[in-house]
Write a structure and sequence with these properties.
- 74% of the residues lie in helices and 0% in strands.
- It has helices spanning 12-33, 38-65, 71-95, 101-127.
- The mean pLDDT is 85.
- The protein is mostly helical.
Length: 137
């Protein structure tokens, strides 16, 4: 699966990070399709997990700064996904199979972006419209 503009939430820095996550997902998807050995899948999964940690930390800091009312719930959703990623890494090491990795990430990530991220983007757009304004050249 590739990034497309329907997934954009309108906050450029977050959209750019989401695009990077999709690049990691694409690499993982290609590796699964090629039936690469488990250690390559594990490396790609760990790269994705590290980038997700960075992205989620940026998102949480932003939500704290703008005093997003559902910040605590959003942070809990992030904590759950990181726990699930750790479980997937452990399962991959034990079984060597990565067949469900891509489906898991695509499903979670798309649902998260299309629902929870869109909700905070709407809040920020209403409360801080200048963040969405384009700078004229």
């Amino acid at each position: 699966m590739k990034w497309n503009s329907s997934l954009a939430i309108g906050i450029e820095v977050i959209d750019n990070q989401h695009k990077q996550i999709f690049e990691h997902l694409l690499a993982l998807e290609n590796s699964v399709a090629k039936r690469d050995p488990w250690h390559i899948l594990r490396f790609l999964l760990s790269q994705l997990a590290e980038y997700m940690k960075f992205h989620l930390a940026v998102e949480e800091a932003m939500l704290e700064i703008v005093r997003y009312p559902d910040h605590a719930d959003h942070r809990q959703a992030h904590a759950r996904i990181m726990e699930q990623i750790a479980e997937l890494e452990e399962k991959l090491q034990k079984t060597g199979s990565g067949t469900n990795l891509v489906a898991f990430f695509e499903d979670w990530f798309i649902r998260h972006v299309l629902t929870e991220d869109r909700e905070y983007a709407a809040y920020i757009k209403e409360e801080f419209p200048a963040l969405f304004a384009r700078v004229k050249a």
